[in-house]
Design brief:
43% of the residues lie in helices and 21% in strands. The chain is α+β, with helices and mostly antiparallel strands. The chain has a 3-stranded mixed sheet with strand order 2-4-5, covered by helices on one side. It has a two-stranded antiparallel ribbon with strand order 1-3.
């Protein structure tokens, strides 16, 4: 009998991977003296556990790049008439590409 990934327990919500990101962003932004809000959409989408494991390092790299290069310190943001806090948004959808913006 053929089993689907969902039936044999390999499917997990994307949120299992994303749970580490709020703390990661909070600590990294504090270390860099930046103020950042993290918005995550699509955490309820289920994926194969192996795929989630393979996505972790690339997503951490993308979020780090957003913080390092896409979010300015609060004083520079105010000089440019931007809100003091920057926002990193991660949006995941089952039928379209993953989108990460900062």
């Amino acid at each position: 009998m053929i089993h689907s990934s969902h039936e044999d327990g390999r499917m997990l919500p994307f949120s299992t991977l994303l749970d580490v990101f709020p703390r990661f962003v909070r600590e990294l932004s504090r270390d860099q003296g930046k103020e950042v809000d993290l918005v995550i959409r699509g955490g309820e989408i289920e994926m194969d556990r192996r795929v989630l494991e393979e996505m972790k390092a690339p997503l951490i790299h993308l979020v780090r790049n957003c913080l390092d290069h896409g979010i300015e310190p609060p004083q520079r943001r105010q000089q440019r008439s931007k809100p003091q806090r920057g926002t990193i948004t991660s949006a995941f959808h089952p039928k379209t590409a993953t989108r990460l913006s900062c």
